[in-house]
Design goal:
CATH superfamily: ComB-like
Pfam families: 2-ph_phosp
Strand order of the largest sheet: 7-2-8-1-9
Shape: globular
CATH topology: putative 2-phosphosulfolactate phosphatase
Structural class: alpha/beta
Helix content: 25-40%
Order of helices and strands: EEHEHEEEHEHEHEHHHHEE
Enzyme class: hydrolase
Radius of gyration: 16 Å
Number of strands: 11
GO molecular function: 2-phosphosulfolactate phosphatase activity; magnesium ion binding; sulfopyruvate decarboxylase activity
Number of helices: 9
Protein name: Probable 2-phosphosulfolactate phosphatase
Cofactor: Mg(2+)
């Protein structure tokens, strides 16, 4: 039977072997939710980079660029880290470079995997159906917050496990914990996460609508996959 595991933060990724594994990266608030939304609204490709300097270099080549640090837009870039930024004709057919505090770093750390997919609650069902059709083990890599565990990405991991539990064996305790957490809160994730640290950060910025949007399940069929240095539509 195939196995599914959860890495709760990229700082723990070195403890796992991912060379024969499909990695699903989740940065629910908000990088991977933005990426899924962008592909749903017609973006051509997204280049995830770890640093602001790299993002600026892509911008100089003519790419639209999005840079976020500490949940705020970095000055000098066209796009920010809100999914609503990507609901525009401006991004249709565009190539975008993106750097964020956590999510893009998690993607770039996963390059040795068989495939790197971008996951969110928004494309949860599409991801689950695709993984059932593949023969590889799965690792959910939670982007976390600056190396620390966070609640929203762990909940996504648990939600994906809930969709796959009849097809995959749970490899480690982190997978069991994530699944139990999701089962405990799935009936009202917004309320369940009310005191979560990143919720508080985002609420201070006055973007409650981003929180509510990113916790919606199964809005889109798009699955971004890393090909070379760019994310494209699977």
């Amino acid at each position: 039977m195939k196995h599914i595991d959860v890495c709760l933060t990229p700082d723990l990724l070195h403890l796992h072997t991912i060379e024969n594994t499909i990695v699903v990266v989740a940065d629910v608030f908000r990088a991977t939710s933005c990426m899924v939304t962008a592909f749903a609204y017609g973006v051509n490709s997204i280049v995830p980079v770890a640093t602001i300097e790299e993002c600026r270099q892509w911008q100089e080549r003519g790419y639209l660029a999005a840079a976020e640090r500490n949940a705020r837009k970095v000055e000098g870039f066209e796009l920010d880290n809100s999914p609503f930024t990507y609901m525009t004709e401006q991004i249709r057919g565009a190539n975008i470079a993106v750097t964020t505090t956590n999510g893009t770093l998690a993607i770039t750390k996963s390059r040795s995997a068989v495939k790197v997919l971008v996951g969110s609650f928004l494309n949860l069902d599409a991801i689950a159906r695709y993984l059932k059709s593949e023969r590889y083990d799965v690792m959910v890599l939670c982007a976390g917050w600056k190396g620390r565990v966070n609640m929203e990405d762990t909940l996504f991991a648990g939600a994906l496990i809930d969709r796959l539990k009849d097809s995959f064996a749970l490899a480690e305790d982190s997978a069991i914990m994530a699944h139990r957490l999701y089962c405990d809160g799935k009936d009202n994730l917004v309320s369940y996460m009310a005191n979560a640290s990143h919720i508080r950060r985002l609420q201070k910025l006055g973007i409650q609508r981003d929180i509510t949007y990113c916790l919606q399940h199964d809005l889109y069929e798009e699955i971004p996959v890393l090909r070379g240095n760019a994310l494209v539509r699977l």
